[in-house]
Write the structure tokens for this entry.
Amino acid sequence: MIAIDTVRRLQAVLPPHCLLLAREDVKPFETDGLTAYRNTPDAVALPETEEQVKQVLAACRETGTPVVFRGAGTGLSGGALPVDGAVLLAMTKFGRILEIDPLARIARVQPGVRNLAISEAAAQYGLYYAPDPSSQIACSIGGNVAENSGGVHCLKYGLTVHNVLALRALTIEGEELVIGQGALDMPGYDLIALMTGSEGMLAVILEITVKLLPKPERTQVILAAFDDVGKGGAAVGAIIRGGVLPAGLEMMDKLAIEAAEAFVHAGYPLDAEAILLVEVDGTQEEVSEDVMRVRDILLASGATEVRTAKDESEQRKFWAGRKAAFPAVGRLSPDYYCMDGTIPRKTLPAVLTRIAELSREYALPVANVFHAGDGNLHPLILYDANLPGATEKAERLGADILELCVEHGGTITGEHGVGLEKIDQMCVQFAPAELEAFHGVKACFDPDGLLNPGKAVPTLHRCAEYGAMHVRGGALPFPELPRF
Amino acid sequence: MPTELQEIIRSTKAPLVIRAGGSKDWYGENIAGEVLDVSALRGIVSYEPGELVLTAKCGTKLSEIEALLDRHGQMLGFEPPRFSPASTLGGTLACGFSGPRRAYAGSARDFVLGMEILDGNGNHLRFGGQVMKNVAGYDVSRLMVGALGTLGVLLSASLKVLPRPQAELTLQFECGEDEAIRRMNEWAGRPLPLSATAWLSGVLSVRLSGAQSAVAAAHRKLGGETNPRGEEFWAGLRDHGAAFFGDGATLWRLSLPSATPPLGLPGKQLITWGGAERWLKSDAPAAEVRARAAAHGGHATIYAGDKSTGVFPPLPAALMKYQQRMKRQFDPRAILNRGRMYSAF
């Protein structure tokens, strides 16, 4: 429970409409996009000015109250999940696009601006903001920075970290950090790299300057069907070895295809074991050449069918199925749990085979949607939360899948973040000394550990209890700690 | 090899100067200490053309990496400078150096996927990985890029690589500085296959890269004279072999928002990176150069000449405070390249 003293301090620095305390008011903030986790916050601060943000942080620092930052609340790893006794500081009201400079191709925005709103505002200049997480109509750019969000075009255009030019941030100690001002690099350490993806553990972001890119002259989408998932995976490698860098390269397995087709009638071939969607963009000439090359490579890789979208409406249809894959799978089952591992692409057949085995062992269906270009796998575990123990079972299967990704040289999270959801799997991916280095980085910016405590980086004790320690060179770390 | 380095780091009483090929000894503040020779960390650990990922030990020569990539039709997208044949991957990443393609393809830091390092306590740490998307833990591997070895000894790095464009063409346009900056920025806002731009001695040079037909079409749109020695021209800018760099004058590198108007500082200037990087040979007082860059939201670094006013621009107090803490965290005894960037770390 939050201390009454803290509440009084907050009431002193925020006008009444910027501080929610009543249970019915704070209830909507109990979860983010990872709705399986819920925790009703004691207090929600919705400041309107930077001075108020500063005052809220000061109040929290002086009273030793933890703070959890929140953007639009669409995150998928529980990064904005309230923590007991903490103030939830939502940056939603910082929704202004401060500047768009079409000549310099930058947008300076407040953290609460929606991802898509930046591209919409830049469209009149023929420009757009490249990272496009699937939640882009709702998610905020501040949240994108906190999570280093990706999307379907990362192979060619990068993640958030590649598209941010400058940040203004405020530390819990009340110091404002001006990190870059629009040049391509800055003196000292690269704090943009450090802040991006730091999951609200280091500082609150006040302002972001992002890079805008010219909209490609032309975009073309090719759909290819395969009678075997491995062949589809091999085709991806062949396209890239062939010298094409597609803007988007997506793969769906049979269950995902069926679900999407039933939902949006995208025209996907239902007899396929896997389909690939290949988007190429660039100038007219470039796209024409790439389409020919990609078609040839797909056919040589054993595609049973290759279709090039005839026009824009067919392109949209091809994409519609992929973009609707999550809700489409959601129709097959009362609940689904979306995982987010990344693997080296060549290990895809082995990983999918093992996921299929695990799916049988757990008796839970898994549909696979894959950002194949960058190796980011989103297995969707289907379950029914109303059945006793089903949620826990789905979580255990998810954990097994993530550990499988690490085993194959990959990572437990490609773009959703660790948050609370994958905190135990951090113990599998990182050795104790590395986790200690992460804690050390946090301590530099947040010595009292008040920002988003308990998220993103597990304590070594937690790892010992989880029992799935990262074992390197056969040496079990912390032999002195008891194991359960 | 890492074990031997670990031993040295753990047992040393004196500060260490990390060194492999030594081609960038001149960069940063002059420092004294015992040389920690990392040139034996050599070799490409893995390379998968179909994954667009290469992992190499940090003492590996850039030339070796580039030759291998070239055989598979790929390249380092950030076009790192090769100041000498001895230039290594580790030195390049530690300095955070990128070449002409940087404004269009990304920087050294952008292409880093993961790293293994030894921190100042000799701990062997791995961050990031060999995959394009990875948000587990803080991005410590990218933090190492440009840190000048002050946070850790770089052991190996995994990089994203890019397919080499089928065709490249260099166009030239005679124009003044103002006009060059405007064109560089306007063209970058259009869907053109730009991969490098430079303005030097009243000539704007533009490199186009991509499919043959796309390069030809862009040439038709932009006009300009073809430079038949384009490859040589860009290599001269990339590796600082061009005559502009060679005369021993004080050389500044200014990093600025790309649309910054002409700075009006005395001396000779080379503009690259679509206007975002400006090389200046000038006798103007350091304070004036720094102030002018800062007024436009940029900063100025001394590449050659009198270092007495500091190679790097002073950091604002708040940034200095947190970066000093980071230094203490990774290297509590301050033995790694102490003072190479700032005297405080």
